[in-house]
Protein backbone atom coordinates (compact mmCIF):
# COMPACT_ATOMS: atom_id res chain seq x y z
CA UNK A 1 0.00 0.00 0.00
CA UNK A 2 1.43 3.35 -1.05
CA UNK A 3 1.12 6.59 0.90
CA UNK A 4 0.66 9.71 -1.23
CA UNK A 5 0.91 13.31 -0.14
CA UNK A 6 -1.88 15.22 -1.89
CA UNK A 7 -0.99 18.91 -2.19
CA UNK A 8 -4.11 21.07 -2.58
CA UNK A 9 -6.87 20.21 -5.07
CA UNK A 10 -9.55 21.66 -7.25
CA UNK A 11 -12.78 22.12 -5.33
CA UNK A 12 -14.97 20.61 -8.06
CA UNK A 13 -15.24 17.06 -9.36
CA UNK A 14 -11.59 16.16 -8.87
CA UNK A 15 -11.77 16.92 -5.13
CA UNK A 16 -13.87 13.74 -4.89
CA UNK A 17 -12.58 11.72 -7.85
CA UNK A 18 -8.89 11.85 -6.89
CA UNK A 19 -9.39 10.72 -3.25
CA UNK A 20 -11.67 7.96 -4.53
CA UNK A 21 -9.03 6.86 -7.02
CA UNK A 22 -6.37 6.68 -4.30
CA UNK A 23 -8.55 4.48 -2.10
CA UNK A 24 -9.81 2.24 -4.91
CA UNK A 25 -6.24 1.68 -6.09
CA UNK A 26 -5.52 0.31 -2.62
CA UNK A 27 -3.48 3.25 -1.36
CA UNK A 28 -3.85 6.01 1.22
CA UNK A 29 -3.12 9.73 1.28
CA UNK A 30 -2.38 12.70 3.49
CA UNK A 31 -3.79 16.07 2.46
CA UNK A 32 -1.62 19.20 2.67
CA UNK A 33 -3.26 22.61 2.37
CA UNK A 34 -2.72 26.21 3.37
CA UNK A 35 -6.47 26.82 3.87
CA UNK A 36 -8.79 23.93 4.68
CA UNK A 37 -11.74 26.34 4.80
CA UNK A 38 -11.34 26.89 1.05
CA UNK A 39 -12.63 23.34 0.57
CA UNK A 40 -15.24 23.32 3.33
CA UNK A 41 -16.88 26.44 1.89
CA UNK A 42 -17.32 24.73 -1.48
CA UNK A 43 -18.76 21.43 -0.20
CA UNK A 44 -22.56 21.65 0.01
CA UNK A 45 -23.16 17.90 0.12
CA UNK A 46 -23.96 15.78 3.16
CA UNK A 47 -21.14 14.13 5.05
CA UNK A 48 -17.50 15.14 5.31
CA UNK A 49 -15.54 16.52 2.38
CA UNK A 50 -13.78 13.65 0.50
CA UNK A 51 -10.43 15.37 0.96
CA UNK A 52 -10.91 15.19 4.72
CA UNK A 53 -11.05 11.40 4.50
CA UNK A 54 -7.26 11.62 4.34
CA UNK A 55 -5.18 9.79 6.92
CA UNK A 56 -3.82 13.19 7.92
CA UNK A 57 -4.91 16.76 7.12
CA UNK A 58 -1.78 18.89 7.40
CA UNK A 59 -1.29 22.66 7.29
CA UNK A 60 1.56 24.09 5.22
CA UNK A 61 2.36 27.20 3.20
CA UNK A 62 1.79 25.62 -0.20
CA UNK A 63 2.34 28.92 -2.05
CA UNK A 64 6.05 28.99 -1.15
CA UNK A 65 7.86 26.14 -2.92
CA UNK A 66 11.04 26.17 -0.83
CA UNK A 67 9.09 26.26 2.42
CA UNK A 68 6.84 23.48 1.15
CA UNK A 69 9.77 21.24 0.18
CA UNK A 70 11.34 21.68 3.61
CA UNK A 71 8.07 21.08 5.45
CA UNK A 72 7.04 18.01 3.43
CA UNK A 73 10.57 16.66 3.83
CA UNK A 74 10.16 16.79 7.61
CA UNK A 75 6.72 15.20 7.40
CA UNK A 76 8.16 12.48 5.18
CA UNK A 77 10.61 11.43 7.88
CA UNK A 78 7.69 10.82 10.23
CA UNK A 79 4.89 9.67 7.91
CA UNK A 80 6.86 7.99 5.09
CA UNK A 81 5.35 9.11 1.81
CA UNK A 82 5.80 7.25 -1.49
CA UNK A 83 4.89 10.06 -3.87
CA UNK A 84 3.16 13.38 -4.34
CA UNK A 85 0.18 14.39 -6.44
CA UNK A 86 -2.30 17.22 -7.08
CA UNK A 87 -5.19 17.91 -9.44
CA UNK A 88 -4.94 21.72 -9.28
CA UNK A 89 -3.01 23.56 -12.00
CA UNK A 90 -1.88 26.25 -9.56
CA UNK A 91 0.13 23.62 -7.63
CA UNK A 92 1.31 21.24 -10.36
CA UNK A 93 4.71 23.01 -10.73
CA UNK A 94 5.29 22.85 -6.95
CA UNK A 95 4.36 19.16 -6.92
CA UNK A 96 6.86 18.45 -9.70
CA UNK A 97 9.59 20.21 -7.70
CA UNK A 98 8.64 18.24 -4.57
CA UNK A 99 8.86 14.95 -6.45
CA UNK A 100 12.26 15.79 -7.91
CA UNK A 101 13.74 17.06 -4.63
CA UNK A 102 12.45 14.18 -2.49
CA UNK A 103 13.24 11.44 -4.99
CA UNK A 104 9.73 10.48 -6.05
CA UNK A 105 8.36 9.76 -9.52
CA UNK A 106 7.05 12.65 -11.57
CA UNK A 107 7.40 14.80 -14.67
CA UNK A 108 10.18 17.33 -15.16
CA UNK A 109 9.49 20.53 -13.19
CA UNK A 110 10.60 22.61 -16.20
CA UNK A 111 8.17 20.77 -18.48
CA UNK A 112 5.28 21.22 -16.06
CA UNK A 113 6.08 24.93 -15.67
CA UNK A 114 6.09 25.30 -19.47
CA UNK A 115 2.71 23.57 -19.77
CA UNK A 116 1.04 25.49 -16.94
CA UNK A 117 2.20 28.93 -18.09
CA UNK A 118 0.36 29.77 -21.29
CA UNK A 119 3.05 32.17 -22.49
CA UNK A 120 5.89 29.67 -22.00
CA UNK A 121 3.78 26.95 -23.62
CA UNK A 122 3.20 29.02 -26.76
CA UNK A 123 6.94 29.60 -27.17
CA UNK A 124 7.69 25.88 -26.68
CA UNK A 125 4.95 24.91 -29.15
CA UNK A 126 6.10 27.10 -32.04
CA UNK A 127 6.80 24.00 -34.13
CA UNK A 128 3.29 22.60 -33.53
CA UNK A 129 0.20 24.00 -35.33
CA UNK A 130 -1.34 26.74 -33.21
CA UNK A 131 -2.47 30.36 -33.41
CA UNK A 132 -0.34 33.37 -34.15
CA UNK A 133 0.36 34.95 -30.76
CA UNK A 134 2.17 37.64 -28.82
CA UNK A 135 3.08 37.97 -25.13
CA UNK A 136 2.72 41.60 -24.06
CA UNK A 137 3.54 43.73 -21.04
CA UNK A 138 1.66 47.00 -20.92
CA UNK A 139 -0.73 48.86 -23.17
CA UNK A 140 1.67 50.04 -25.87
CA UNK A 141 2.91 46.49 -26.50
CA UNK A 142 -0.69 45.21 -26.52
CA UNK A 143 -1.83 47.71 -29.19
CA UNK A 144 1.18 47.07 -31.42
CA UNK A 145 0.81 43.28 -31.16
CA UNK A 146 -2.96 43.38 -31.71
CA UNK A 147 -2.54 45.38 -34.90
CA UNK A 148 0.04 42.85 -36.07
CA UNK A 149 -2.17 39.82 -35.38
CA UNK A 150 -5.38 41.52 -36.47
CA UNK A 151 -8.84 41.72 -34.90
CA UNK A 152 -10.78 39.80 -33.76
CA UNK A 153 -8.33 38.16 -31.41
CA UNK A 154 -8.34 36.36 -28.06
CA UNK A 155 -7.03 37.90 -24.83
CA UNK A 156 -5.80 35.47 -22.16
CA UNK A 157 -4.12 35.63 -18.78
CA UNK A 158 -1.00 33.47 -18.77
CA UNK A 159 -1.68 31.84 -15.40
CA UNK A 160 -5.41 31.45 -14.72
CA UNK A 161 -7.74 28.50 -15.24
CA UNK A 162 -11.40 27.64 -15.96
CA UNK A 163 -11.56 30.19 -18.78
CA UNK A 164 -11.27 33.13 -16.38
CA UNK A 165 -10.83 36.45 -18.22
CA UNK A 166 -10.41 34.68 -21.59
CA UNK A 167 -12.40 36.61 -24.18
CA UNK A 168 -12.64 37.68 -27.81
CA UNK A 169 -12.03 41.36 -28.57
CA UNK A 170 -12.96 43.03 -31.83
CA UNK A 171 -11.27 46.42 -31.54
CA UNK A 172 -8.92 48.49 -29.42
CA UNK A 173 -11.69 49.64 -27.09
CA UNK A 174 -12.56 46.06 -26.18
CA UNK A 175 -8.86 45.23 -25.95
CA UNK A 176 -8.45 48.03 -23.41
CA UNK A 177 -11.37 46.71 -21.37
CA UNK A 178 -9.86 43.21 -21.33
CA UNK A 179 -6.36 44.36 -20.39
CA UNK A 180 -7.68 46.59 -17.59
CA UNK A 181 -9.83 43.76 -16.23
CA UNK A 182 -6.77 41.52 -16.00
CA UNK A 183 -4.73 44.26 -14.35
CA UNK A 184 -7.51 44.55 -11.77
CA UNK A 185 -7.15 40.89 -10.78
CA UNK A 186 -3.55 40.74 -9.48
CA UNK A 187 -4.02 37.79 -7.07
CA UNK A 188 -5.77 34.50 -7.89
CA UNK A 189 -8.27 32.58 -5.74
CA UNK A 190 -5.39 30.76 -4.01
CA UNK A 191 -3.78 34.05 -2.93
CA UNK A 192 -0.92 33.66 -5.40
CA UNK A 193 0.39 36.85 -7.01
CA UNK A 194 -0.31 36.66 -10.72
CA UNK A 195 2.08 37.17 -13.60
CA UNK A 196 1.05 40.48 -15.24
CA UNK A 197 1.91 39.34 -18.79
CA UNK A 198 -1.02 39.11 -21.23
CA UNK A 199 -1.28 36.62 -24.09
CA UNK A 200 -2.86 37.75 -27.36
CA UNK A 201 -3.80 35.05 -29.84
CA UNK A 202 -5.27 34.75 -33.29
CA UNK A 203 -8.93 33.71 -33.02
CA UNK A 204 -9.21 30.05 -34.03
CA UNK A 205 -12.56 29.21 -35.63
CA UNK A 206 -14.05 25.72 -35.52
CA UNK A 207 -15.26 23.00 -33.15
CA UNK A 208 -13.12 22.28 -30.09
CA UNK A 209 -12.18 18.87 -28.72
CA UNK A 210 -9.81 17.54 -26.10
CA UNK A 211 -7.44 14.60 -26.37
CA UNK A 212 -7.10 12.48 -23.23
CA UNK A 213 -3.68 10.81 -23.00
CA UNK A 214 -1.27 8.98 -20.71
CA UNK A 215 2.47 9.48 -21.28
CA UNK A 216 4.96 7.08 -19.69
CA UNK A 217 8.65 6.68 -20.50
CA UNK A 218 8.37 8.91 -23.56
CA UNK A 219 5.43 7.03 -25.09
CA UNK A 220 1.99 8.63 -25.26
CA UNK A 221 -1.15 6.48 -25.33
CA UNK A 222 -4.28 8.18 -26.62
CA UNK A 223 -7.27 7.10 -24.54
CA UNK A 224 -9.73 9.00 -26.70
CA UNK A 225 -11.11 12.35 -27.83
CA UNK A 226 -13.84 14.36 -26.06
CA UNK A 227 -16.00 16.97 -27.75
CA UNK A 228 -16.76 20.34 -26.18
CA UNK A 229 -19.65 22.81 -26.38
CA UNK A 230 -18.67 26.47 -26.03
CA UNK A 231 -21.17 29.26 -25.22
CA UNK A 232 -21.25 32.77 -23.81
CA UNK A 233 -19.46 34.88 -26.45
CA UNK A 234 -17.32 36.91 -26.08
CA UNK A 235 -16.34 34.52 -23.31
CA UNK A 236 -15.42 30.84 -23.75
CA UNK A 237 -17.64 28.93 -21.31
CA UNK A 238 -17.78 25.14 -21.56
CA UNK A 239 -21.44 24.08 -21.45
CA UNK A 240 -20.92 20.35 -22.02
CA UNK A 241 -18.84 17.43 -23.25
CA UNK A 242 -19.39 14.08 -24.91
CA UNK A 243 -17.04 11.09 -25.03
CA UNK A 244 -16.14 9.79 -27.51
CA UNK A 245 -16.32 12.73 -29.89
CA UNK A 246 -18.11 12.09 -33.16
CA UNK A 247 -15.10 12.40 -35.48
CA UNK A 248 -14.21 10.81 -38.80
CA UNK A 249 -11.20 8.53 -38.88
CA UNK A 250 -9.15 11.21 -40.63
CA UNK A 251 -10.15 13.85 -38.07
CA UNK A 252 -9.30 11.56 -35.17
CA UNK A 253 -5.88 10.80 -36.62
CA UNK A 254 -5.07 14.46 -37.28
CA UNK A 255 -6.24 15.65 -33.85
CA UNK A 256 -4.41 12.97 -31.89
CA UNK A 257 -1.19 13.41 -33.86
CA UNK A 258 -1.05 17.15 -33.13
CA UNK A 259 -1.80 16.53 -29.44
CA UNK A 260 0.98 13.97 -29.11
CA UNK A 261 3.37 16.33 -30.92
CA UNK A 262 2.50 19.09 -28.42
CA UNK A 263 3.15 16.82 -25.43
CA UNK A 264 6.53 15.88 -26.89
CA UNK A 265 7.41 19.52 -27.65
CA UNK A 266 6.75 20.47 -24.02
CA UNK A 267 8.92 17.60 -22.76
CA UNK A 268 6.15 16.09 -20.63
CA UNK A 269 6.49 12.55 -19.32
CA UNK A 270 4.79 10.48 -16.63
CA UNK A 271 1.62 12.53 -16.95
CA UNK A 272 -2.05 12.06 -17.64
CA UNK A 273 -2.72 14.77 -20.21
CA UNK A 274 -5.71 16.80 -21.37
CA UNK A 275 -4.92 18.66 -24.60
CA UNK A 276 -7.43 21.06 -26.12
CA UNK A 277 -7.49 21.37 -29.90
CA UNK A 278 -9.49 23.47 -32.37
CA UNK A 279 -10.59 21.85 -35.64
CA UNK A 280 -10.06 24.77 -38.02
CA UNK A 281 -10.48 24.93 -41.79
CA UNK A 282 -6.68 24.60 -42.08
CA UNK A 283 -6.45 21.60 -39.76
CA UNK A 284 -6.21 20.96 -36.01
CA UNK A 285 -4.43 23.60 -33.95
CA UNK A 286 -3.41 23.51 -30.30
CA UNK A 287 -5.33 25.59 -27.75
CA UNK A 288 -3.48 24.35 -24.63
CA UNK A 289 -1.91 21.29 -22.99
CA UNK A 290 -2.81 20.45 -19.40
CA UNK A 291 -0.45 18.05 -17.58
CA UNK A 292 -3.17 16.51 -15.40
CA UNK A 293 -6.47 14.65 -15.82
CA UNK A 294 -9.32 16.56 -17.43
CA UNK A 295 -11.74 18.48 -15.25
CA UNK A 296 -15.46 19.08 -15.77
CA UNK A 297 -16.17 15.38 -15.07
CA UNK A 298 -14.64 14.35 -18.41
CA UNK A 299 -12.72 11.57 -16.66
CA UNK A 300 -16.06 10.09 -15.59
CA UNK A 301 -17.27 10.09 -19.21
CA UNK A 302 -14.10 8.22 -20.15
CA UNK A 303 -14.46 5.73 -17.30
CA UNK A 304 -18.11 5.00 -18.03
CA UNK A 305 -17.44 4.28 -21.71
CA UNK A 306 -13.99 2.65 -21.71
CA UNK A 307 -13.39 1.52 -18.14
CA UNK A 308 -10.16 3.56 -18.10
CA UNK A 309 -9.89 5.47 -14.81
CA UNK A 310 -7.69 8.49 -15.55
CA UNK A 311 -7.52 9.79 -11.94
CA UNK A 312 -6.37 6.33 -10.85
CA UNK A 313 -3.68 6.32 -13.55
CA UNK A 314 -2.63 9.78 -12.28
CA UNK A 315 -2.20 8.23 -8.83
CA UNK A 316 -0.29 5.21 -10.09
CA UNK A 317 2.15 7.34 -12.08
CA UNK A 318 2.85 9.43 -8.96
CA UNK A 319 3.71 6.22 -7.12
CA UNK A 320 6.27 5.29 -9.77
CA UNK A 321 4.21 2.55 -11.42
CA UNK A 322 4.03 1.87 -15.15
CA UNK A 323 0.37 0.96 -15.57
CA UNK A 324 -1.19 -0.71 -18.57
CA UNK A 325 -3.89 1.31 -20.31
CA UNK A 326 -6.52 -1.08 -21.62
CA UNK A 327 -10.09 -0.23 -22.55
CA UNK A 328 -12.79 -2.71 -21.53
CA UNK A 329 -16.40 -2.92 -22.76
CA UNK A 330 -18.87 -1.16 -20.49
CA UNK A 331 -22.00 -1.37 -22.61
CA UNK A 332 -22.03 2.41 -23.07
CA UNK A 333 -21.81 3.77 -26.60
CA UNK A 334 -21.23 7.33 -25.38
CA UNK A 335 -21.55 9.47 -22.27
CA UNK A 336 -22.15 13.20 -21.94
CA UNK A 337 -22.26 15.89 -19.29
CA UNK A 338 -24.09 19.20 -19.55
CA UNK A 339 -23.73 22.21 -17.27
CA UNK A 340 -26.41 24.60 -16.07
CA UNK A 341 -25.35 28.23 -16.36
CA UNK A 342 -27.02 31.27 -14.81
CA UNK A 343 -28.66 33.82 -17.07
CA UNK A 344 -27.12 36.55 -14.92
CA UNK A 345 -25.82 37.34 -11.47
CA UNK A 346 -28.24 36.91 -8.55
CA UNK A 347 -29.33 34.76 -5.62
CA UNK A 348 -30.91 31.41 -6.53
CA UNK A 349 -34.39 30.88 -5.09
CA UNK A 350 -34.95 27.46 -6.67
CA UNK A 351 -34.00 25.37 -9.68
CA UNK A 352 -37.06 23.78 -11.30
CA UNK A 353 -37.18 20.71 -13.52
CA UNK A 354 -35.10 18.29 -11.45
CA UNK A 355 -37.90 15.68 -11.44
CA UNK A 356 -37.01 14.80 -15.04
CA UNK A 357 -33.53 13.79 -13.88
CA UNK A 358 -34.90 10.56 -12.39
CA UNK A 359 -34.68 9.04 -15.91
CA UNK A 360 -32.87 5.71 -16.28
CA UNK A 361 -30.11 7.09 -18.51
CA UNK A 362 -29.16 9.82 -16.01
CA UNK A 363 -26.24 8.51 -13.96
CA UNK A 364 -25.33 11.67 -12.06
CA UNK A 365 -26.75 15.12 -11.40
CA UNK A 366 -26.50 17.99 -8.95
CA UNK A 367 -27.78 21.56 -8.69
CA UNK A 368 -26.95 24.43 -6.37
CA UNK A 369 -29.25 24.93 -3.38
CA UNK A 370 -31.54 27.87 -2.69
CA UNK A 371 -29.54 30.81 -1.44
CA UNK A 372 -26.55 30.18 -3.70
CA UNK A 373 -25.08 33.43 -5.04
CA UNK A 374 -24.81 33.00 -8.82
CA UNK A 375 -22.12 34.97 -10.62
CA UNK A 376 -22.01 36.26 -14.16
CA UNK A 377 -21.78 33.44 -16.74
CA UNK A 378 -18.32 34.39 -17.98
CA UNK A 379 -16.25 31.32 -17.01
CA UNK A 380 -16.53 27.68 -15.98
CA UNK A 381 -16.67 28.83 -12.35
CA UNK A 382 -20.28 29.97 -12.86
CA UNK A 383 -21.96 26.55 -13.07
CA UNK A 384 -25.19 26.05 -11.13
CA UNK A 385 -25.35 22.31 -11.71
CA UNK A 386 -24.65 19.43 -14.06
CA UNK A 387 -26.32 16.38 -15.57
CA UNK A 388 -24.55 13.26 -16.85
CA UNK A 389 -26.13 10.64 -19.10
CA UNK A 390 -24.95 7.35 -20.58
CA UNK A 391 -26.22 6.20 -23.98
CA UNK A 392 -26.40 2.42 -24.45
CA UNK A 393 -28.62 2.44 -27.55
CA UNK A 394 -26.37 4.35 -29.92
CA UNK A 395 -28.65 7.38 -30.12
CA UNK A 396 -25.96 9.80 -28.93
CA UNK A 397 -25.65 11.19 -25.43
CA UNK A 398 -25.09 14.83 -26.39
CA UNK A 399 -28.62 15.63 -27.61
CA UNK A 400 -30.12 13.87 -24.61
CA UNK A 401 -28.10 15.77 -22.01
CA UNK A 402 -28.76 19.08 -23.76
CA UNK A 403 -32.51 18.33 -23.61
CA UNK A 404 -32.33 17.63 -19.86
CA UNK A 405 -30.26 20.71 -19.04
CA UNK A 406 -32.62 22.89 -21.11
CA UNK A 407 -35.45 21.63 -18.88
CA UNK A 408 -33.80 23.10 -15.76
CA UNK A 409 -35.05 26.58 -14.94
CA UNK A 410 -33.35 28.93 -12.51
CA UNK A 411 -35.61 31.16 -10.41
CA UNK A 412 -33.96 34.07 -8.67
CA UNK A 413 -34.81 35.50 -5.27
CA UNK A 414 -36.55 38.86 -5.42
From TrEMBL:
InterPro entries: ATP-dep_AA_Ligase (IPR052032), ATP-grasp (IPR011761), BL00235/CARNS1_N (IPR041472), LAL_C2 (IPR040570). It holds the Pfam family ATPgrasp_N. Keywords: ATP-binding, Ligase, Lyase, Nucleotide-binding. GO terms for molecular function: ATP binding; ligase activity; lyase activity; metal ion binding. The keyword Ligase applies. Residues 120-319 form the ATP-grasp domain. SMART domains: GARS_A (SM01209). Coiled coil: none annotated. This is Argininosuccinate lyase. It comes from Actinokineospora cianjurensis.
Amino acid sequence: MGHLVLVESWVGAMSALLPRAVREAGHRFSFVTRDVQHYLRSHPGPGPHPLLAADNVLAAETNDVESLVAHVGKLHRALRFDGVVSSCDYYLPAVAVLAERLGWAGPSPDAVERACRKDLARVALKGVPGPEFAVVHGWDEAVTAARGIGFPLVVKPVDLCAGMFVRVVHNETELGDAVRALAGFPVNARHQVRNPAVLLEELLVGPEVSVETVTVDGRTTVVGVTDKSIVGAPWFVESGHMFPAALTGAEYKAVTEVAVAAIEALGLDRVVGHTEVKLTATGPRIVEVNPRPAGNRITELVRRTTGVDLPMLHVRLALGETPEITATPTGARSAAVGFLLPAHRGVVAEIDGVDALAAADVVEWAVKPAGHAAGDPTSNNAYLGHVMVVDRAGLGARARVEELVAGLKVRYAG
